[in-house]
Amino acid sequence: MVKSADEVLISGIKEVDDFFEQEKTFLLDYFSKIKDSTAKAEKMTRSHKNIADDYIHISATLNAICAEDSTANKKSLEKLSDLFEKLRKVEGRVASDQELKLTELLRYYMRDIQAAKDLLYRRARALANYENSNKALDKARLKSRDIPQAEEHQQQCLQKFDRLSESAKKELTSFKGRRVMAFKKNLVEMAELEIKHAKNNMAMLQGCIEQLKGF
After folding, report:
1. Crossing angle for the helix pair 5-12 and 18-68, nearest 10 degrees?
2. What is the CATH number of the domain that holds 131?
3. Whole-angstrom Cα distance, residue 48 to residue 95?
4. In the chain, how many domains are there?
5. What does the DSSP 8-state code read for residue 14?
6. Residue 68: Cβ-neighbour burial (10 angstroms; 0-12, 13-18, 19+)
7. Structural domain of residue 66, as residue ranges?
8. Which residues neighbour 17 within 8 Å (Cβ) at sequence distance 6 or greater?
9. How confident is the chain (215 residues) per 10-residue block, as mean pLDDT?
10. What angle (nearest 5°) sits at the alpha carbon of residue 103, between those of residues 97 and 107?
11. Where is the Sorting nexin/Vps5-like C-terminal domain (predicted)?
12. What is the pTM of this model?
């Protein structure tokens, strides 16, 4: 897998804070897993939509057969056609719920994780600049030239790095809390909706079977 420029920098620089070292490792791995989960969620949603489309074709075919059937099977075929139309609606709702509660959430966190990685990149760049300013100051002292300018530049780089470290730590801590709450909320809601749809499907199937027995 080809790494982006920020991933190369983030992975290559020697970290000075354990918190950011752990976050760096976590985010690079987590982004890969979320990306994979998003692709699988999209595939799952498409499958439910395809099933709903199949139900449309089955219902339409049964309707067409009914139109040409004058036997005792006509009522059974009509009932089955109606059943598949109802199942189509439920399957469509399942697909919509999964899209809203899971797939969209994963897409959002792909973007949010990228923003967190960008934050780590900016901090890593600031750390690299600070380390370079230390080297430049050492050279200036060896040559006894431009020492005040080198010291001022070093202090500016250090201040920028400290500011970014402080803000990044707050943002990454907040990100963790938001992420846990969002996934818990959406996954619970999706599970409740899927239980509801499964019960509706079961009730419709049982009702249809009972009616078919009466024909």
Report:
1. 140
2. 1.20.1270.60
3. 5
4. 1
5. P
6. exposed
7. 5-214
8. 165
9. 56 79 90 94 96 96 85 85 94 96 94 90 91 94 92 96 95 91 95 96 93 80
10. 145
11. 11-145
12. 0.75
